Structures are given as structure tokens and as C-alpha cells.
Amino acid sequence: MSLRPSEREQMRKGNYKQSVDAEESRRRREGQMVDIRKAKREESLQKRRHVGFAASAAGAVAPTGHSSALQQKLEGLPALVQAVLSNDPNVQLEATTQFRKLLSIERSPPIEEVISTGVVPRFIEFLTREDHPQLQAVWALGNVAGDSPKCRDLVLGHGGLFPLLQQLNEHAKLSMLRNATWTLSNFCRGKPQPNFEQVKPALSALQRLIHSQDEEVLTDACWALSYLSDGTNDKIQAVIESGVFPRLVELLMHPSASVLIPALRTVGNIVTGDDMQTQCVIDHQALPCLLNLLTNNHKKSIKKEACWTISNITAGNREQIQAVINANIIAPLVHLLQTAEFDIKKEAAWAISNATSGGTHDQIKYLVAQGCIKPLCDLLVCPDPRIVTVCLEGLENILKVGEAEKNLGGGDVNVYAQMIDDAEGLDKIENLQSHDNTEIYEKAVKMLESYWLEEEDDAMPSGENPQNGFNFGNQPSVPSGGFNFG
């Protein structure tokens, strides 16, 4: 049997995951669709702030006549700058408020124009004051930092973090807590990420803020933690050592999705770390919470995120896979693999396949007993080549256990190969021999050769060989000279 042309090899290496190996089975948050979803959420969050704040502020620029009104405001910038730089507290307050309103415009706020006036350091200076400009300055800096990573880094570079953290104390009014926490989350977010050493001091404040009873403060504090935990293992370790984890697990049961989602994102980021960091999630009893997210009536995005988190736990060691089994998570995972929307199915497939990759024979037999074979087979026809590969890897790991059981028992039947055939998986694997993706094609051929070829050879008359790939079942054989059509 001939393999595909060698020139496809380079394309395969460039475009597709070579195998679901131990290093790649634990996945960072990645992929274009994930980035798009995050961008939409963050744009929505920013828009909520702009609309909410601007609408409540007298004199905010209205959408009607946007360009002309904005132009008038910009023409008044030099006078506002002079007012901000004055020594009169009342004049300072009024000017800072006007800047804040300008930065709160919903559509294309003039961030760069305001930055170019040089007022950002003055706003940061106002954070250290005991009088009124504080709140307005926090508000303005949040809008500047939230505009882009470049603007965020400018505010951080002017030393904006520590004066902001001083506002997050037990004596702060709720309005200040809400605005300062939101601004802090903007200091932490964005790609490329801020210098971690620059924002790491925020962790101690966030550890306190996540104990707030205010939903808005909780939401923004959890998003800040999700940004800080999204990265290398040293960042993850710093988040763990800040002491946030017990409360984060509690927040996985929060009734509001706006709090639950960033808390879950943070937990999910932590299990992209090493086995010890993943163990922290297990030790703090997060698995029962994840089970709840899979089984209760939560929105699609939450179930998908929970499956992604579990997939990174099943990418761990055997004890961690066993912890997932002991938490009774496998059956709900298999149910989602069978019945959920495709986006959820994909993450559930990763979770099951990772468990087959690192699990013991008994653990893999348990997965089979929970019914994972049929839904894995069903996904072999999905349009996502990476998920097809993941499912093939899972089925191959199951077949290896079936082969070991067959040899151990002295039998002549791989029970799991028969179960895959019964689930119409064999037909699907055969069809993958013509898949455009070389890795999938080669994986399918290897599986057919390893687990079904001997059976086919036994049924074949002596002297005959399979042609043009493998055919199993009752398919007609191709005449050696091909077909003649008159």
C-alpha cells in the first residue's frame, strides 16, 4: 500500500498537530475563535462602561452630531489642560471630570489626543490626593488603559499602578471600589500582555477584592486574575501563591454568570500549568464544582469552558485522571460528547482522549464502560481535522488496551475493535483513508493494519491482497485490471 506523496509532509507539519502527545495534550487557551470570543466580550465590557458612565454624566457627548460636538470638545483641550495643571482644587476637579467625559464617549473616544496633551501623569498624581479629583482620575485612567496595550503600558510606565492600589482599601466607597477595580482589570488585560513584574503587585489587592459581596467588583477582579494567570507557569504560580484559590473555587458556584465565567477562566488557566499546579485545583475541591457546571442548566460557553478545564486535568498524571473519575465527571462528559453542540463536543473529546492517553488500562476500561466509543466514532466525520485526530488517538489508545486484554486472556478477539465496528466506527476509519490530511490518512491506515488487517486476511482467499487501501465488510472487490465501462 502506497502512502501519500512526500511533499504533503511539510504541509502536515505546518498545519496540523502531529499527535496528541503528552506535551501538547495540556492546552493553553488558544485558537482564532477563542481570541475572537474574548475580543467580543472585552469590547462589550468596554462598551458597557462607556455607555453606562457617559449616559449618567451631565454634558457627555451625545451620539447625535457626534463629529461636530467632538471637534468642539477637542478645540477646548488646551484650556482643559491648563485647568488640570492649575492649583485650584475646584478647577482641577471640573477639568478632570470633562476629560473623563471625553474619554467615556462610546464611539471612537479621543484617547490618543488626550494622551498627547500630557495629562496622564497629572491624573496619576491626583490618585494620591484626598479630595475629589480621585474618582474622576481613576475613571479617566481606566478608559485610557483600556484603549490598547500601548496606552495601558503608557499609564503603567508613568507609575499608575501603586497609587491606584492605594484606593482599594477597606475605607473606600463602593463607587471608588467599582471604578478602581475596573481600572485595575484594564491595567492587567490585553495582548501583548503587560510586563508581569509590573502588574504582579496587584495580586494582593485582588486577593482581597474577590471577597467582596458586590457583583461588579467581583466580576472585574476575576477578569483581572484571568488575565494575570494566562501565561507561563511562573505567572500561574504567582497567582496560586497569592492565596486566591479557595475563594475562586467558591465563585465557581456563584449565581451570576458574569462572575462565574472569569472565575472559571482563571481556574482553567491554572490547570494549563504543571502537574503540581493542576493538583492545587483538585486539592481545593474544584472538581465537584466542575461537575455541577457540566450537569446543570448553564449556558453553552460555560459548559465549553468547563470541558476545556477538565481536558487539561485529564492531561495530567494517572492520579489526576482518577480524581476526575472519582468525581463522577466521566458520564456527564460522555453525555455531552453525544448530545451537545459541536463546540462543547470538541472540548469533551479532548477531555476523553487525554484520559485515554495517560490513563491506566483499568481507567481506559472504565471510560469504555461509560460509553465513550460511540460518540468518539461519530466525531470521525466532523469537519475539524484536529478533532478527528484527537478522536482517532483516543480510539487507538482504547484499541491498545483491547489488544492487551485479548493477549492476556489468550482469546482471538479484540473486544474493543468489535465495539468500534458495531458503532460504525470501522466504516468511518476506512473512509479516512481518502482524507486530505496526511496525518489522518496515515493514522487511519495504521489502525486498520494493526487491528483489522489480520481479521481480513483470514477471510481472504489465498493469494489475494487488498488493493487501493483496505476494504472491510461486504464491499465489492475491485477487479485486478480495474473496471471496464463500455
* Terminal residue distance: 29 Å
Shape category: elongated
The value of Rg in angstroms is 29 Å
Strand content: under 5%
**What is the helix content?**
55-70%
Mean pLDDT: 83
The helix count comes to 31
Q: Low-confidence segments, ≥5 residues, pLDDT <50? A: 1-20, 30-41, 46-65, 462-468, 472-486
How many strands appear in the DSSP assignment? 0
Biggest beta sheet attributes: none
Global structural class: mainly alpha
Region (Disordered): 1-45, 458-486
GO biological process, one term: protein transport
ARM repeats: 201-243
Biased composition (Basic and acidic residues): 1-12, 23-45
Q: How would the blueprint of this fold be written?
A:
Elements: H1 8-15, H2 22-25, H3 32-56, H4 66-75, H5 77-84, H6 89-103, H7 111-116, H8 120-126, H9 133-145, H10 149-157, H11 161-167, H12 174-188, H13 196-199, H14 202-209, H15 215-228, H16 233-241, H17 245-251, H18 257-270, H19 275-283, H20 286-295, H21 300-313, H22 318-326, H23 330-339, H24 342-358, H25 361-369, H26 373-378, H27 385-409, H28 415-422, H29 425-431, H30 438-451, H31 453-459
Helix pairs in contact: 5-6, 6-9, 8-9, 9-12, 11-12, 12-15, 15-18, 17-18, 18-21, 20-21, 21-24, 23-24, 24-27, 27-28, 27-30
Function: Binds specifically and directly to substrates containing either a simple or bipartite NLS motif. Promotes docking of import substrates to the nuclear envelope.
GO biological process, one term: protein transport
Region (Disordered): 1-45, 458-486
Describe this entry's structure for a reader.
It comes from Urochloa decumbens. Binds specifically and directly to substrates containing either a simple or bipartite NLS motif. Promotes docking of import substrates to the nuclear envelope. Belongs to the importin alpha family. Keywords: Protein transport, Repeat, Transport. This is Importin subunit alpha. The protein is mainly alpha-helical and about 475 residues long. The protein is about 65% helix and about 0% strand. It has 31 helices and no strands. It has helices at about 10-15, 20-25, 30-55, 65-75, 75-85, 90-105, 110-115, 120-125, 135-145, 150-155, 160-165, 175-190, 195-200, 200-210, 215-230, 235-240, 245-250, 255-270, 275-285, 285-295, 300-315, 320-325, 330-340, 340-360, 360-370, 375-380, 385-410, 415-420, 425-430, 440-450, 455-460. Helix 5 packs across helix 6 and helix 17 (about 245-250) packs across helix 18. It is elongated and about 90 Å long.
